[in-house]
Design brief:
Length: 568
């Protein structure tokens, strides 16, 4: 029996030298014949690019105290060596009048014309500043984690001793902390803590933050504190600015972060573990969340390209208290709940074209998150209760993503009863999270943040499917929740000038009109108007005694276009 030869697949060195055909075996026939070792040349490792080489790689370029990340840019990377020899200019504490004029010319188109005002008139008393920082730590920091609480607290306390000598980047951060702290307070709380109305303090600290950002030339800055300040400013702006304007400004924050390389893991090399792998990751992911929400409410796409999202890892599941700026390595991520748990997105569910497989994946992930993080949480603690509700809401929204007949052409599509049951069950789970926050006294400190993430898509889906619900008891429970939503969100009515709020009111009236028509068609008792229905009908000039379907369907124009009347 002949031995089995191993096929090599290309000519050996001897056959190549003799320029004869090699049979490709080891050893080949020619080498056996001449009695020599059969060997081949090694293929060059440079012949084919690796997967890593195929990706676009960036480079950190430092110029003075500016640290810029450049990506696939031959001009900047070729000059990087020359830029590193630049002598860093001294860090500004207070820019000169000439610099202020130059900076204001670039930022006036964003913040509007600003007149220079001395910091002496902008800084609050030390006692007020301390109270605002405590409000920030209580009401905001647990939900944002943009800064490292202990280290920033140390800097703030040091700055209170002489607020007019602090560095300009820290001044930006402190003013933005003051602003968003005021946003989180009620008018009554503002008067009790600061002796003035919330409106007055909002105006003061909004101007102070904008002035501080202008002074540091934030549009050109690569300072992390400045970006943190601008991100906190945008979080506060959600409550006072137009959605379209906010979306443009979150895009600006995204560009600033990309210029610093926050979207690329490779840019974190040569930085301390504390600065690189904690603070910068936190800021980047908060900006991604903020920009995604701004895109949703402004009607833009919520699926940015991969090169915009980058490859920066999510922040580790580590308590603030376990981190110190001087550490040489990060501690291992905790396998249990931490104070970061409220921020960490769940592990991604693999995309699937099969709804059944997708829903099974969601169920499996929910069990994993519950057993690992939520099971042992003390829900008597407000933040833990919020985290559990948020997790349930997130998984319910994942399930709802399988069936969303919210597009106009899909609303008449037939849905099976199990699908309707699933929509009702999960929609109510999502909306209950919002209701819980408004009805639980211990969670009122966080309403400033929760109200900014109201689940518009979910309530639209619920209202779209409500007329098809067979069980009158189920429909009644769902309508009670809808009424609660309007009760807790008075900005939806009356006289809302927001087109999305007006459209939501139209859909609510249309769905209610279907309920009334169906009850009449089968001779059932006509349901009594809910308070939200009476308000919406009155707002649109639709008489309470009329229930004509055409009246309900035709209230489509917002007050910015025309006021609807019954006219039938």
């Amino acid at each position: 029996m002949t031995d089995i030869k191993t096929t090599r697949g290309h000519s050996c060195t001897a056959c190549q030298h003799r320029k004869i055909r090699c049979n490709g075996q080891s050893s080949c026939a020619y080498c056996i014949k001449i009695g020599r070792d059969c060997s081949r040349r090694r293929r060059s490792t440079q012949s084919r690019p690796t997967a890593a080489q195929g990706r676009r790689e960036g480079q950190v370029v430092e110029s003075g105290n500016q640290r810029r990340y450049v990506e696939d840019n031959k001009l900047w990377t070729s000059l990087s060596g020359e830029l590193e020899d630049t002598t860093p200019p001294p860090k500004d504490r207070r820019p000169s009048p000439a610099k202020r004029m130059h900076h204001s010319a670039q930022t006036n188109f964003i913040f509007g014309p600003q007149q220079w005002q001395s910091p002496d008139t902008l800084h609050p008393f030390a006692v007020q500043s301390f109270k605002l920082f405590q409000a920030f730590l209580t009401n905001l920091h647990p939900l944002t984690k943009i800064v490292h609480g202990p280290s920033v607290q140390e800097e703030v306390l040091g700055a209170l001793a002489d607020p007019y000598a602090m560095e300009a980047d820290l001044e930006c951060l402190i003013f933005s902390i003051h602003l968003i702290a005021v946003v989180s307070l009620s008018d009554k709380e503002c008067r009790a803590l600061l002796d003035e109305s919330k409106e007055e303090h909002l105006a003061r600290y909004r101007y102070a933050t904008e002035a501080a950002l202008s002074r540091v030339d934030f549009l050109r800055s690569t300072d992390l504190k400045v970006l943190q300040a601008f991100t906190l400013y945008l979080l506060a702006l959600r409550h006072v600015a137009d959605n379209d304007v906010l979306w443009l400004l979150t895009g600006l924050a995204t560009r600033m972060a990309q210029r610093m390389g926050l979207h690329r893991e490779s840019s974190l090399q040569h930085l301390s573990p504390f600065d690189a792998r904690k603070c910068r990751r936190r800021v980047w992911w908060q900006i991604i969340i903020l920009d995604g929400r701004a895109a949703q409410v402004s009607g833009a796409s919520m699926n940015p390209a991969a090169h915009l999202v980058g490859d920066t890892k999510q922040p580790a599941n580590i308590n603030d208290g376990d981190l110190v700026p001087s550490m040489s390595a990060l501690p291992a991520a905790s396998a249990s709940a931490t104070d970061m748990q409220k921020l960490l997105p769940s592990s991604p569910v693999p995309p699937s074209q099969d709804p059944e497989r997708f829903l099974k994946s969601v169920d499996g992930l929910e069990k994993k998150v519950h057993s690992r993080y939520l099971r042992n949480m003390d829900t008597e603690m407000p933040l833990n209760s919020l985290a559990v509700s948020l997790a349930r809401s997130a998984f319910a929204q994942l399930r709802l993503s399988v069936c969303r007949p919210t597009r106009q052409r899909d609303r008449n599509a037939e849905l099976s009863q199990p699908q309707l049951d699933m929509i009702q069950r999960n929609s109510l789970e999502v909306i209950r999270y919002d209701v819980l926050a408004h009805t639980t006294k211990a969670l009122r400190n966080f309403l400033w943040h929760i109200s900014s993430f109201f689940p518009y898509e979910t309530i639209v889906l619920l209202l779209t499917c409500l007329p098809r619900m067979v069980s009158s008891d189920d429909a009644e429970r769902a309508w009670d929740v809808v009424n609660e939503v309007y009760e807790h969100h008075p900005m939806f009515t009356p006289e809302s000038r927001d087109s999305s709020h007006w459209a939501l009111g139209n859909l609510t009236l249309k769905s209610w009109g279907r309920r009334v028509s169906d009850a009449r068609a089968v001779g059932s008792e006509i349901p009594q108007d809910l308070p939200c229905i009476r308000t919406l009908r009155s707002q649109r000039g639709v008489p309470d005694e009329e229930y004509r379907d055409e009246v309900v369907v035709e209230v489509a124009d917002s007050p910015s276009k025309k006021t609807c009347t019954s006219g039938h």
